[in-house]
């Protein structure tokens, strides 16, 4: 089998058919506007944005999915498109099969973007960059422009994708604060950045199996009404149903008196700092969310972001850029996939 390899440092123009052995850890030079002029007269970033916008106009739930996709791709083995790979005879258990990737979605958006870009300029735009652009664009859309930033590009796609790696690397919603801090530290993120990034849980939804531990959490850790009348009831309603992460996105009938705690936002399902306000009211879904107010080291940051939504928009954007720079291990085989769901042959 002939495997195409390249390093970040290599220009796409010098693609070689023969394998290159990469002896040293050359840092990837990611740059803002990397694709300018690389796809004829087509603007790569506009194609991504327009496609993301069209999908989200039709179905806003894809927005949360794309933000989560960026996190889950970049955290495991660096931003390498590994979350996108389907199982195959040579790789029967890719990342998307991990329990920690339950509910992963938005891959149809990535496929649509990739198809358009392969038509415009075959073999130029990596799936890893599409995931990052799409996550950035979804953040902008879901925050009505509040989270709006340039992100560097020039990533290449990997060929490694393991459900075991994903399970061992991604944080667990039932983890305590010590584990969460250690999990983020392992990727170079501070406890403050853990708090900042967790604010993404102001949008989207989760399966009961990821918060059923909260059904028996004490009153000091969760609003009892929320626990007994929203979470418990939802979990009994169907096999492993989903519930909105943000109380704002739960229907008023289910919410009952808790509706008075809702932090309104235009259009609902809105990426903003309401997560921190909900957290201070013990109205968040996961143990990993509550854990941030249960410890002094992180509580101060929860307070900071609950008070200042503009500050959160800015800091969240910065933290996403940092996430997007997580790189594949040195010496990894790199390529630009023809299709995002399978490695090239
Ligand atoms: C702090 C550690 C984190 C844990 C333990 C965690 C865990 C989870 C879990 C269990 C779900 C629900 C999946 C399901 O049941 O379908 C979820 C959803 C989500 N997470 Fe996280 N997460 C964390 C951090 C993050 C970060 C850093 C981001 C992005 C910056 C993020 C973005 C999201 C989004 C947007 C959703 C909703 C997805 C959707 O509705 O499609 N999470 N998270
Ligand atoms: C872009 O390039 C294509 C093919 O080279 C050409 O057919 C098309 O007219 C150009 N479009 C614009 C807006 O310049
Ligand atoms: C991929 O996994 C699915 C579900 O487990 C299975 O039905 C399918 O046969 C697998 N495909 C390959 C190519 O291994
Ligand atoms: C957190 O800070 C409060 C007030 O400053 C203090 O009473 C409490 O003991 C601290 N808790 C921990 C676990 O350090
Ligand atoms: C909120 O944060 C922004 C950005 O740092 C800052 O300019 C603004 O003054 C802060 N607002 C308040 C009320 O502290």
UniProtKB/TrEMBL annotation:
<dbReference type="GO" id="GO:0005576">
    <property type="term" value="C:extracellular region"/>
</dbReference>
<dbReference type="InterPro" id="IPR019794">
    <property type="entry name" value="Peroxidases_AS"/>
</dbReference>
<keyword id="KW-0560">Oxidoreductase</keyword>
<dbReference type="GO" id="GO:0004601">
    <property type="term" value="F:peroxidase activity"/>
</dbReference>
<dbReference type="GO" id="GO:0042744">
    <property type="term" value="P:hydrogen peroxide catabolic process"/>
</dbReference>
<dbReference type="GO" id="GO:0020037">
    <property type="term" value="F:heme binding"/>
</dbReference>
<keyword id="KW-0376">Hydrogen peroxide</keyword>
<feature type="binding site">
    <location>
        <position position="254"/>
    </location>
    <ligand>
        <name>Ca(2+) 2</name>
    </ligand>
</feature>
<feature type="binding site">
    <location>
        <position position="251"/>
    </location>
    <ligand>
        <name>Ca(2+) 2</name>
    </ligand>
</feature>
<dbReference type="Pfam" id="PF00141">
    <property type="entry name" value="peroxidase"/>
</dbReference>
<feature type="disulfide bond">
    <location>
        <begin position="74"/>
        <end position="79"/>
    </location>
</feature>
<feature type="disulfide bond">
    <location>
        <begin position="39"/>
        <end position="121"/>
    </location>
</feature>
<keyword id="KW-0408">Iron</keyword>
<feature type="disulfide bond">
    <location>
        <begin position="127"/>
        <end position="340"/>
    </location>
</feature>
<dbReference type="GO" id="GO:0006979">
    <property type="term" value="P:response to oxidative stress"/>
</dbReference>
<feature type="binding site">
    <location>
        <position position="80"/>
    </location>
    <ligand>
        <name>Ca(2+) 1</name>
    </ligand>
</feature>
<dbReference type="GO" id="GO:0006950">
    <property type="term" value="P:response to stress"/>
</dbReference>
<feature type="binding site" description="axial binding residue">
    <location>
        <position position="201"/>
    </location>
    <ligand>
        <name>heme b</name>
    </ligand>
</feature>
<protein>
    <recommendedName>
        <fullName>Peroxidase</fullName>
        <ecNumber>1.11.1.7</ecNumber>
    </recommendedName>
</protein>
<keyword id="KW-0349">Heme</keyword>
<feature type="binding site">
    <location>
        <position position="95"/>
    </location>
    <ligand>
        <name>Ca(2+) 1</name>
    </ligand>
</feature>
<keyword id="KW-0575">Peroxidase</keyword>
<dbReference type="GO" id="GO:0046872">
    <property type="term" value="F:metal ion binding"/>
</dbReference>
<feature type="binding site">
    <location>
        <position position="76"/>
    </location>
    <ligand>
        <name>Ca(2+) 1</name>
    </ligand>
</feature>
<dbReference type="InterPro" id="IPR000823">
    <property type="entry name" value="Peroxidase_pln"/>
</dbReference>
<feature type="binding site">
    <location>
        <position position="82"/>
    </location>
    <ligand>
        <name>Ca(2+) 1</name>
    </ligand>
</feature>
<comment type="similarity">
    <text>Belongs to the peroxidase family. Classical plant (class III) peroxidase subfamily.</text>
</comment>
<keyword id="KW-0873">Pyrrolidone carboxylic acid</keyword>
<feature type="binding site">
    <location>
        <position position="78"/>
    </location>
    <ligand>
        <name>Ca(2+) 1</name>
    </ligand>
</feature>
<feature type="disulfide bond">
    <location>
        <begin position="208"/>
        <end position="235"/>
    </location>
</feature>
<dbReference type="GO" id="GO:0140825">
    <property type="term" value="F:lactoperoxidase activity"/>
</dbReference>
<feature type="site" description="Transition state stabilizer">
    <location>
        <position position="68"/>
    </location>
</feature>
<keyword id="KW-0106">Calcium</keyword>
<dbReference type="InterPro" id="IPR010255">
    <property type="entry name" value="Haem_peroxidase_sf"/>
</dbReference>
<keyword id="KW-0732">Signal</keyword>
<feature type="active site" description="Proton acceptor">
    <location>
        <position position="72"/>
    </location>
</feature>
<keyword id="KW-0964">Secreted</keyword>
<dbReference type="InterPro" id="IPR033905">
    <property type="entry name" value="Secretory_peroxidase"/>
</dbReference>
<feature type="signal peptide">
    <location>
        <begin position="1"/>
        <end position="19"/>
    </location>
</feature>
<keyword id="KW-0479">Metal-binding</keyword>
<dbReference type="InterPro" id="IPR002016">
    <property type="entry name" value="Haem_peroxidase"/>
</dbReference>
<comment type="similarity">
    <text>Belongs to the peroxidase family. Ascorbate peroxidase subfamily.</text>
</comment>
């Amino acid at each position: 089998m002939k495997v195409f390899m390249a390093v970040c440092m290599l220009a796409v123009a010098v693609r070689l058919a023969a394998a290159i052995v990469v002896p040293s850890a050359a840092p990837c030079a990611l740059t803002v506007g990397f694709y300018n002029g690389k796809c004829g007269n087509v603007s790569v970033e506009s194609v991504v944005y327009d496609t993301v916008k069209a999908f989200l106009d039709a179905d806003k739930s894809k927005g949360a999915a794309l933000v989560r996709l960026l996190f889950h791709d970049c955290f495991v083995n660096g931003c390498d498109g590994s979350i996108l790979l389907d199982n195959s005879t040579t790789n029967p258990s890719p990342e998307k099969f991990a329990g920690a990737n339950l509910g992963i979605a938005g891959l149809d958006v990535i496929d649509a973007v990739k198809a358009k870009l392969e038509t415009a300029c075959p073999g130029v735009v990596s799936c890893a960059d599409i995931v990052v652009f799409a996550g950035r664009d979804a953040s902008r859309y879901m925050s009505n422009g509040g989270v709006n930033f340039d992100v560097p590009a020039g990533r290449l796609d990997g060929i490694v994708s393991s459900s075991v790696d994903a399970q061992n690397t991604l944080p667990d919603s039932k983890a305590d604060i010590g584990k969460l801090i250690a999990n983020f530290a392992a990727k170079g993120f501070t406890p403050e950045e853990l708090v900042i990034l967790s604010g993404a849980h102001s949008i989207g939804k989760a399966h009961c199996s990821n918060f059923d531990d909260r059904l028996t959490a004490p009153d000091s850790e969760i609003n009892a009404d929320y626990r007994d009348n929203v979470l418990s009831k939802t979990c009994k309603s169907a096999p492993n149903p989903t519930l909105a992460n943000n109380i704002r996105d739960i229907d008023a009938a289910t919410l009952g008196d808790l509706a008075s705690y809702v932090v309104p936002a235009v259009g609902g399902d809105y990426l903003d700092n309401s997560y921190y306000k909900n957290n201070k009211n013990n109205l968040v879904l996961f143990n990993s969310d509550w854990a941030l107010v249960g410890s002094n080291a992180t509580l101060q940051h929860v307070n900071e972001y609950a008070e200042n939504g503009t500050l959160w928009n800015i800091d969240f954007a910065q933290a996403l850029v940092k996430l997007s720079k997580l790189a594949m291990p040195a010496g990894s085989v790199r390529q630009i996939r023809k299709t995002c769901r399978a490695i090239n042959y």
